[in-house]
Amino acid sequence: MKRPLDRPQSIGPHIRMLLPTLTPLETSVVETALGQPGFSEGTALRDLAQAAGVSEPMVVKVAKKLGFNGFREFRTALVLYNALPGSDLHRELAPEDTSSEITRKVFDTSIQAVQETLAILDMEAFDRAVGLIHGARQRDLYGIGGSAQIARDVAHKLLRIGVRASVFDDAHMMLMSAALLGDGDVAIAFSHSGTTTAVIEPLQLARRRGVRTIVITNYAGSPLAEAADVVLCSTAQGSPLLGENAAARIAQLVICDALFAAIAQRDLPQAERNLNATMGAVSARRQVK
């Protein structure tokens, strides 16, 4: 993965992805830096440490855990990111907001999530995921709640081009699925937080059985990501009301659309034949005026 400063738009998402790897005290350093008014190149290490209630070495430690050389590079990165157009798009809903303002905030949040996800997308990991899914004997998809809906969307798209996949959204069924997978199969797990036990356990089981595992999540340092051969990360900023799940779901769907297109490209003539066949099979179910 490229260093954070290589692409300023990736700085915010890069930091958010790694938050699960930090302790609560370390997280407070990041939150203080992000929320400190007037944070700039002139902000001293001492000032940030005092504001966060930690030692100066702790601030340096956090900066290095996030992939920076030290505090100065961490400070420069945040200043660069905050100066980007649209970095302040993420705003909370207010009681006085009009429908137009609410719509704009929701759309802006989702657009930003998609743009920042593209900025951090690991293309080497993406290509590996495409190859594993395309060449798999069996493809089992795991997800709970909203993540299960993403899994179903992926399975639906793949079926349209003749690539079969099974979706499991029950904890027991996922474990049963994982217990039957083997060499040549792939397990794909979807989880925004990457901390859902019901999804982590079957993925770990699948991996112990020699199955290749793919994860789509919002956090690269999550327990679910640790059980994966390939990790594809979406990113979205948190918000008490708007939340990050909704925007991250949009970003994850776009990642899956890109996977679908790349898988279809592996054998485009066959994909087009299967697409015509599946479209033709359901065409009679559509009303014609």
TrEMBL record:
Domain of life: Bacteria
InterPro entries assigned: Homeodomain-like_sf, HTH_RpiR, RpiR-like, RpiR-like_SIS, SIS_dom, SIS_dom_sf, WH-like_DNA-bd_sf
Stretches assigned to the SIS domain: 129-269
CDD domains noted in UniProt: SIS_RpiR (cd05013)
Domain HTH rpiR-type stretches: 9-85
Keyword hit for Heme: no
Name of the protein in its database record: MurR/RpiR family transcriptional regulator
Secretion signal, residue range per the UniProt entry: none
GO biological process: carbohydrate derivative metabolic process
Gene3D superfamilies: Glucose-6-phosphate isomerase like protein, domain 1, Winged helix-like DNA-binding domain superfamily/Winged helix DNA-binding domain
Pfam families: HTH_6 (PF01418), SIS (PF01380)
Keyword Phosphoprotein: no
GO molecular function terms listed in the Swiss-Prot or TrEMBL record: carbohydrate derivative binding; DNA binding; DNA-binding transcription factor activity
